[in-house]
Give the backbone structure.
Amino acid sequence: MTPPTQDASARQHSGEPSPVANRGAHRASRLGGANVAEVDRQIAELLDRSTSELRRAWRQLHRTGPPRGLSRDLLIRDLVHHLQERAAGGASRALRRRLQTARELVKKSGSFYAGIAPKTGTTLVRQWRGHAHTVLVCEDGFEYEGQHYRSLSAIAERITGAHWSGPRFFGLTKRTGASLGAEAGQ
């Protein structure tokens, strides 16, 4: 993509979304009426483009060709998403940082819990029907009764015989007061 320019006439035929003033402004006030109209106009232009032009726009935006077999409809949807995202200012820096942290955690461990992520070496203990069940958190999963598991949910299912959310079963997620009372009897 070429760097954005402030000259509206130069942007008019480039096919790129226009940059938005007040990028740091409060999200609700970012899109003014004129900017919404401009984005709507650009979206309408996308609908009139040929499939080859849409592929060219994808290449320009993503710096690679679109996946094989990607339909015209999905090409348009992706391009519209990027137009709207740019007009609204995109995700905040804090959200992008949190998403990157989550991606790194998923790559490292193969799973991600939105609650508490236990550290390697942590021992989880859960009482179930009068028996204490102990799980060791490993770098690449979990160990229970000498066997390796990739997820806590598989261990919870083995213990209970029914599908459970493993993190919830072992108390790694926040629960409401009503569910705390219901589980206290088990």
